[in-house]
Amino acid sequence: MSNSSEAELLHTFKGIPFTTRSSPELLKSLDTFDAREDDVLLVSYPKSGTHWLAGVITKLYNTQVTITSPIEFGDISKLEELNKLSSKRIIPTHLDYNMLPPNFKNKKCKMIYISRNPKDTAVSMFHYYRENPNLPTVDTWTAFFDLFLKGNGKHKCFFLAVLVSFLCTERDLPKVVKEITLFLSLNVSDNDIQDICEKSSFSEMKNDTEKENSDPSHTVCALTSNRKLIFRKGAVGDWKNHFTPKQNIRFEEIFNEKMKLSKMAKCLIY
Ligand code: A3P
């Protein structure tokens, strides 16, 4: 578990907490980012399956693509590094829609929003904080549960994350992947989609170190820095091993209230 002090690890930008993985200079300069029309943006709340989605998209494209680390992670040199990459760039982000570099919207770049049962997201994030020495210290599940609901200080509030359109990772996978191909205008046969789904299973992705080792851009831009940390359990419903019945009721009350205008509420919670 980390013993780093919160003060060292956190700062806020436009009222939103960031860890020092995102330098204030980089965040300020995002507005100037030169997006390209063929960039694809993967938008998510952390621990929602970003790496799974990135892996599937890489497999769907026949041509060489580069998956970068989230655009908001790094220092002021990040945008220059991204500029040097040849197309096609697949760029993840956990930023709210209104904080995205405006060029992504002006150039009508494709954006895919991925989400997951928020109870599993909360549990996944709890373990990630516990195991990652670069993140603020988290002592107990009970303490983390409160912070997740309130979003006060240690991470952005889940319920304030803006929805654009969404995929839900717990639906029929071939159907989800088919939807992705249609959205990205890719011509991929149903057999290939089936094959990609099999290769994108939790166990395959956890063990897939080949790409990491052979990708020259890995050191500056790779999304996956530590496979063991990211691919932890990959289970649907792990929240049941953590939530008390009381926490479950409280979570659902808050979720239903905050998300009542969103289709996501109906799709995700159970
Ligand atoms: P757990 O911590 O519950 O295991 P992100 O990529 O956004 O950081 O999300 C990571 C979470 O997605 C982890 O959750 C990870 O196991 C899960 N995940 C990633 N790929 C997966 C896959 N192919 N199948 C199931 N879960 C997967």
TrEMBL record:
Spell out the protein name for this chain.
Sulfotransferase
Top-level class of the enzyme under EC nomenclature: transferase
Q: Which keywords are on file for this protein?
A: Transferase
The molecular function terms in GO held by this entry are: sulfotransferase activity
- For the Sulfotransferase domain, which residue ranges apply? 38-262
What family does the Swiss-Prot or TrEMBL record give for this protein? Belongs to the sulfotransferase 1 family.
Q: What is its EC number?
A: 2.8.2.-
What SUPFAM superfamilies has UniProt attached to this entry?
A: P-loop containing nucleoside triphosphate hydrolases
